[in-house]
Design a protein that fits this description.
The complex is a heterodimer of chains A (about 400) and B (about 200). Helices cover about 65% and strands about 5% of the residues of chain A. Chain A has helices at about 1-15, 30-40, 70-80, 85-110, 115-125, 125-130, 140-155, 160-170, 175-195, 205-225, 235-250, 265, 290-295, 295-310, 315-335, 350-365, 365-385, and strands at about 275-280, 280-285. Chain A is globular, with a radius of gyration of 21 Å. The chains are: A mainly alpha (about 400), B mainly alpha (about 200). The interface between A and B is medium-sized, with 24 and 23 residues.
Chain lengths: ~400, ~200
């Protein structure tokens, strides 16, 4: 088991780090906001095309998102240097850690090393996970902190879970989904208890309350610390209010455009690919592995069935992640068309990796089908692999 | 007892989300702009006030508030309501200054506009202060920030403040800048006219 996990993590880290500097000092996709913001925070020279060219020195001008992930990138730039590796190494490390937490979660909930390895392997084979582990954007930090928070929770460390969810929120407000995931998960576990004891137990509420309280306290405290010296906001609550209103009152949905917007239900069909970057042999394509994304609907239905029939906590986790990370976006888009992009599904993706692995183990698929599925997922990953040749 | 409680929560959630309906604000702004284009400034003002009500539910630094106040200021100028236009512009500038530096051409342009409104209101010293904040940036980006027109405004302002030497220098600078930026343009006629009006 250890060798298998080590192999998956080592290969994942290697393909996340290799040739990170291939594009030189060119920025990829939304790095065009975050790296100039980091530059301004660190007092470094403005980059060409800097959207924050005329902001006050030293502040984080990218005020629509909390400063957490940008602080991590800034620390890396200080440590490694103002270059592609300094910008993107944190994403590569967090992207690899995300795979580790997928393994830990799947193994914890199923008690099976094989399921854990399969889930980690599938998460590692997702092109969008890879792309976000190679660009200095915020989303991979949210995914990893959320997974770490959920893992802490299921292992009984509720306060730590709250702190990790708070860290996710301090990177991007969408980290709040972690609270919803854990709440759904706990409600599901309470239901499982009830079916066994024929009564609702309040014992389950204690860790949930602890986690929520620690997150509610930690978010402003952490944000206050992170904001020191770089924020334009008077206090963390003001910052959160801005981030909330910016996310909630976003500009209307405009399907055509250089960066294709898409509705949450389109993501399930892998529609509206995002071209993150293309130069020479490098082409960063923002798409999910079809062998994972196309399973969302059947897998969610099966998980519901499996949860109800078998009281499966692993199936419950899939439901909680789909319910906490994906459904709110669907509801928000149904209420008002808003700017949403394919990569907003990223926090839900680990649930699919876990769910598919649990499904494979539960229904005992014939070996040939399992192998064919893995081969298909690997082939899709190879097809979408960012490097089309040797640099 | 439980159901009404759930309904209350749902209603509260709905109110919270309807407070921040971006597309509704966009529609209101588009309607206001079309009214202003058609010359219906009273209608445009009413629509913009509606848009501002929506935007004010958001954070004060949210772009909706900035954009609405800027449009509102423009409509007030068209209506000749300079005091209200000044208040709207000053609100935008105050918020922008939280993030933007003095080097920002957009902010400098707003200072120019605010200077012009102050001039129209007879608040000459305040107008001069705004022009002086706009000038260093206009010197760096003369085309974008219409340096020649800024000099012309400064010249008229100085003349009205009885700073004759200053006014002459600004008139001369306006002419020089116009020769580069707008050769043969209508600004030369304006300079001539303003010189005559101010006796320079």
């Amino acid at each position: 088991m250890f060798l298998g996990l080590f192999g998956i993590l080592a290969i994942s880290l290697a393909i996340r780090v290799m040739w990170l500097g291939y594009s030189g000092r060119q920025l990829m996709f939304d790095e065009g906001y975050y790296i100039p913001a980091v530059h301004n925070m660190l007092g470094l020279e403005a980059m060409p095309g800097d959207p924050y060219r005329y902001v006050r020195d030293g502040i984080d001008p990218n005020i629509e998102h909390p400063v957490g992930a940008k602080r991590i990138i800034a620390a890396s730039v200080r440590l490694v240097g103002d270059n592609a590796y300094g910008w993107r190494l944190p994403s590569a490390i967090f992207g690899t850690l995300a795979i580790l937490f997928v393994f830990l979660l799947a193994r914890r909930l199923t008690g099976s090393d094989a399921v854990g390895l399969a889930a980690a392997g599938l998460a590692a084979l997702d092109p969008m996970m890879l792309v976000h582990s190679r660009v200095a954007m915020l989303d991979i930090f949210v995914v990893t902190f959320t997974l770490a928070g959920v893992y802490s929770y299921v292992t009984g460390r509720a306060i730590m879970a709250g702190l990790l969810i708070a860290a996710a929120v301090c990177c991007k407000l969408t980290g709040l989904a972690g609270l919803v995931v854990i709440a759904i998960f706990e409600v599901g576990r309470s239901w499982i208890d009830r079916t066994r004891t024929a009564k609702w137990s309040t014992a389950r509420l204690r860790p949930l309350l602890l986690m929520t309280t620690s997150a509610v306290v930690a978010v402003p405290a952490l944000l206050w610390l992170l904001n020191r010296g770089v924020s334009v906001f008077a206090n963390p609550f003001d910052n959160l209010f801005y981030a909330y209103t910016h996310q909630a009152a976003t500009y209307g949905f405009r399907p055509p455009g250089p960066i294709p917007q898409s509705r949450p239900w389109e993501w399930l069909l892998n529609r509206q690919e995002i071209n993150y970057f293309q130069q020479g042999v490098l082409h960063l394509r923002g798409l999910y592995n079809p062998f994972l994304i196309f399973t969302t609907v059947p897998l969610t239905l099966w998980s519901l069935f499996h949860f109800v029939r078998q009281r499966s906590e692993s199936a419950l986790l899939v439901l909680a992640m789909v319910g906490g990370c994906f459904l709110p976006l669907v509801l928000a888009s149904l209420q008002t068309p808003r700017q949403t992009y394919l990569y907003y599904f990223l926090p839900t993706l680990p649930a699919l990796a876990v769910g598919v692995s649990v499904f494979g183990a539960s229904v005992r698929l014939p070996r040939a089908i399992t192998l064919a599925y893995i081969a298909g997922a690997a082939a899709a990953f190879a097809y979408y692999f960012p490097f089309r040749g040797l640099p | 007892m439980k159901l009404p409680r759930v309904l209350h929560v749902l209603a509260a959630c709905l109110c919270l989300t309807s407070c921040v309906d971006g597309p509704k604000w966009e529609r209101t702004m588009a309607f206001a702009r079309s009214q202003a284009q058609a010359g219906d400034y009273t209608g445009a003002e009413r629509s913009l006030r509606d848009a501002l009500d929506q935007a004010q539910r958001l954070h004060p630094l949210h772009p909706y508030q900035l954009e609405t106040n800027t449009e509102l200021a423009r409509v007030y100028f068209k209506m000749g309501e300079y005091e209200r236009g000044k208040a709207a512009l000053a609100s935008v500038i105050g918020k922008l200054e939280v993030i933007q530096s003095e080097e920002d051409p957009g902010l400098a342009r707003l200072h120019s506009e605010l200077g012009r409104v102050c001039d129209l209101l007879g608040q000459l010293d305040e107008a001069s202060a705004h022009y002086l904040r706009a000038l260093p940036v206009a010197l760096k980006v003369p085309v974008e920030n219409r340096l020649d027109y800024l000099y012309l405004d400064m010249a008229v302002n100085a003349a009205r403040r009885k700073r004759t030497a200053e006014a002459d220098e600004y008139f001369s600078n306006a002419t020089k800048a116009a020769q580069v930026l707008h050769p043969g343009g209508p600004i030369f006629e304006e300079i001539k006219q303003k010189r005559a009006e101010t006796g320079r």
